[in-house]
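To fix ideas, we reproduce below a protein record of this kind.
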Amino acid sequence: MSLTVSELLALEGLSALRLRAGKQGLQRAVRWYYVAENEHIAEWIMGGELVFITGINHPRDEANLIQLLMEGKQRGIAGMVILTGEAYIHAIPATLIALADELGMPLIEQPYLLKMVIVTERIGTALVRSENVLQSQRDILMQLVTGDYPDLQMLHQRALHQQLDFTRPLRLAALRLEGLSRLFRQFPPEQAEAWLLQAHRSVRQQLQQLNQQSNSFPLLERSNMFLFLLPDEEGEGFQQKKWLQQWLQALADGEESLSLLCGLSAPVRQLQGYPRALSQARQALDLCDTLRPTQRISDYQQLGFIKLLSAVSDPALLNDFMHDTLGCLIEPGRKAPWLLLETPRDAAAGERQRGAGRRPAGSPSQHVASAHPAH
């Protein structure tokens, strides 16, 4: 997992840093740090940064600090650190603290007496170490889901060393942005690519933040899909699906209007089952893209007979099968030709019911029919 704002605040030597607002955002993942030198920061950041405001190279009044916080929120920063002291920024304005709480953006105060070189060195070192661990975890998980590993036992040992617990049942979730082909048809390639990169960056950051709150498994990216594992123990799978549905809906209703679809695999209980789980999640995701369920999630376990039909890559085979097998039950000349004709058994049952209605009440045949209903 990436380091969170909360974990960075707990680093040795940084106890002087004080959280002033936005505690609900302490689980935001920190990608790197950035020291703001200009009046605005929007064009200089990419998302996931811990932004430091010193006030040294550019004067910072209340209005500018509010503007920086709003730009940071829009670009998806992890948090903001403001250096305070007698020389430049004397104190953090109360309006900024209230706004950070409203936005859920961690706002941290750093005294000028705590040297920036110490802070950035501690944070930079911790982030590099975290990235090395995360890269090893991603490598292990990617080998598992693709089946591209030289030795499963060795991979299991690596997973144990990296504290990845595969002993409990897990599900693989595959997410993909909706309408990518339409995006590139409607807009010039440069504009479409820029939007796609920004959308992926925003989704990645939000998934990392949400996923790592209660999940030790890293986020993977493969073939325009976001992949991650979810626990599936004692009803926990239902809660995870509910959480996913709410998050996907909130994302679609948000300012960025990011519409994602999700496919869920069946639970996996053995290491060698993860390549199949990837296939299941992709199959469910493709069906979700076709069927467009209102909850934006397709669960492989609930696909039923569609599992078999969707596994046929050539649609012509399904059409041929339908015509060869069901053709005798279809009347092309009818107003609704695709409504199946009555089978002889259904027709006979209907005729018996109509005949029973024509017989006088109390006749022997009626009593027999009522005692032995047609099947």
